[in-house]
Amino acid sequence: MSGVVLPEMRETRLATGLRVVVARRPGVPLAAARLAVRAGSALDPEGAFGLAHLVAISARRGAGRRSGRVIDDLVESLGANLAGGAEEDASIHGLSAPVEVLPRLLEVLAAVVARPSFPPPEFERLRRSERAELAHDSDEASTVADRALLEAVYAGHPYGHAVEGRGQDLGRIRRRDAEAFHARWFGPGSALLVVSGPVDPDATVEEAERRLGTWKPAPATPGEIPAALRRPRRVVIVDKADASQVQIRIGGVAIARRSPDYFPALVGNTVLGGGFTSRLVESIRVNRGLTYGVRSRFGVGRSTGLFAISSFTKNETAGELVEVALAEMARFAASGPSGEEVSRAASYLAGLFPLSLETHDHWADRIADAWIYGYEVDEVSGFQARIRSVTPEEAQKATARHLPVEDGVVLAVGPAGPLERQLSRFGPVEVWPVRRVM
């Protein structure tokens, strides 16, 4: 199978420092744009977790001289979509529009990112809505587990909270905090504009200069976030007395996206727990009948990442599931996958990959990701070949380096008393209330 072919790309840096990448692609007469800024939730101040998220989602509720309603009506009337959000490492606003109206909507996108007005009624409405959604989500044990895992694994690191923040923090955040965050971090020197589709590169760069050429520099430039520290294993129980099933997470500090271990670890994890025929599924679901679902993954960021096993089981079998999962992980770290397993995993990953690059939006996202996470966009064209070149030894060594065989966290969400009795053999136990992470 031939590799993925990169579109014709042109990169320009404006005098303000803004990077502009135009990816010219034939096809449907639509264009996709992404305007990303290195101002994600990792920059949330202590006690204001969720601030970057609020800034991102409230920006389109008023920008430049337009109200949120006017922006909504304009975007809808032109058959376009415009949305924004924050991640750990960046805030990203995305646009998808018919190519003939792209110049008009690039002006809207530029205003939303560079000149949001944060109208007080709209900001307060969104803040209250986000708090209410978190209160609702606190009833979902799986959501609680995923959020708690971040805090438990990263423990004081800038990645150690969910992007959406916590209800108690959102209750303290005010509009002036959003204005100050935006004024401090949002500037062209730490931003990237990507446009993908059947567009003219010269005209697109000229339009970017017209709309963003006067964007004022931000007073602060985000620095590189340090890697998180690995710690001895401990057990964290989030006490949820009404849970009839326990949510289990086993996690630890792992790789950044730009790590040389990324590709072999991706293959190794597919064998271990990344697919329906994985070893974890075989040992925990098929052989023991402890759950209907179990999976593992590497979650990667710019500076660091995490490895996580996720599952659920009856309250009384939580200890058994953890024991089997830890044993399977240790066996994999020691002996690794077979050649046949690596071949199947590589074929699976390589076969799926082109499906993630079918549209102009896919390509805009991929190019922005490469900039955010610090890898070369050329990796996209070489992805399939690189995956297929991974050997069993490479997969074993790379995966083993990042599996929490003796460190990390065993985390459970359920009734604390019964769970503590089952899980204390795996490490010292901490019991958290749900409100700590929600």
Task: Explain this structure.
The chain has helices spanning 51-58, 68-77, 102-114, 120-137, 141-154, 167-170, 175-185, 201-212, 262-274, 279-286, 318-335, 339-352, 360-373, 378-388, 392-402, 416-423, and strands spanning 8-13, 19-24, 30-37, 62-63, 66-67, 81-86, 91-98, 191-197, 234-239, 245-254, 294-300, 305-314, 409-414, 429-433. By secondary structure, it is an alpha+beta fold. The strands form 3 sheets. A 6-stranded mixed beta sheet has the order 1-2-8-3-7-6, with helices on both faces. A 6-stranded mixed beta sheet has the order 11-12-10-13-9-14, with helices on both faces. The protein has a two-stranded antiparallel ribbon with strand order 4-5. A hairpin with a 4-residue loop joins strand 6 (81-86) and strand 7. The longest helix is centred in the N-terminal third of the chain and has 18 residues, at 120-137. The radius of gyration is 23 Å and the shape is globular. The termini are far apart.
